[in-house]
Amino acid sequence: MSLPTQASMGQRMPALFIGHGTPIYTLSENRYTNAWKQIARGMAVPKAILCISAHWMTRGTRITTADYPKTIYDFGPIDTRLNVIEYKAPGAPSLARDIAGRLPFDIELDEGWGLDHGAWTVLRHMYPDANVPVVQMSLDMNLSAREHFERGKALDFLRYENVLILASGNIVHNLTVIDPREDHAYPWALHADAKMAHHMVQNDIESLIDYSSLGEDIELAIPTPEHYWPLLYALGAKNDDDILSFPVMGISHGSNSMRSVLISPQ
């Protein structure tokens, strides 16, 4: 199936949060990878992608400027098939420099980082021809949840310039209690995932920023914030007249939410 035509300048692109889950999912066609394909088919082809992944945490903020970002295998010995995959999308150094120059906070240009598995395991299904340039921006571990949300708001201008903001993490992500059964879901994980979805539908941003006050199930769901923070970038880029939807849902391996959040213009 052919992809849609490229969006016109000034036509607002969606913003997207993907629950990427285990890298194993990228190896096969399954309900998650098929949904990622459908998301891409349902939108215009962007001129470039800005990816914000849970797997690039830095002190200060960095943005990639490599002409051809390397594929990073930032996981343990899961499956040898993963370590031979290369996602050869081009970078966009000029776009990265433009973004760094226009944002109201400091960004360090970084030629060494590539695309970690929060990016490539998803992108190789959304854009299998690797023909859309990708730039990755890191998560500054020194920032608060509110500051991450505000950075998402500051990135909103990219949506009017045919750049897809793609955030990648997991709303529920607790690997300390992971279950080997792929289709298992702990009751607290289901409850936490549904609670966060409710606050998104209600546009209750304050609760989503102050998530640690939402109860014990949320404490279990977000024991560390790096997989949750990317969601705040997508929500920060949301306009008042955008439509919020959940093109992917589900809990995998007990304690990992695969929920994706699509923010689309009407």
Automatic annotation (TrEMBL):
According to its UniProt record, the EC number is: 1.13.11.29
Whether Kinase counts among this entry's keywords is no
Q: What SUPFAM superfamilies has UniProt attached to this entry?
A: LigB-like
Gene3D superfamilies recorded? LigB-like
Kindly state which keywords UniProt assigns to this record, in alphabetical order. Dioxygenase, Metal-binding, Oxidoreductase, Zinc
Record-annotated Extradiol ring-cleavage dioxygenase class III enzyme subunit B domain positions: 33-241
Give GO terms: molecular function aspect only. stizolobate synthase activity
Reading the lineage from the top rank, the first entry is Bacteria
An example of a Pfam family matching this protein is LigB
What InterPro entries does the entry give? Extradiol_dOase_DODA, Xdiol_dOase_suB
Per the record, the similarity remark reads: Belongs to the DODA-type extradiol aromatic ring-opening dioxygenase family.
PANTHER family membership: 4,5-DOPA DIOXYGENASE EXTRADIOL-LIKE PROTEIN (PTHR30096:SF0)
Q: What is this protein called?
A: 4,5-DOPA dioxygenase extradiol
Q: Name the species this protein comes from.
A: Enterovibrio norvegicus
> By which gene is this protein encoded?
ygiD
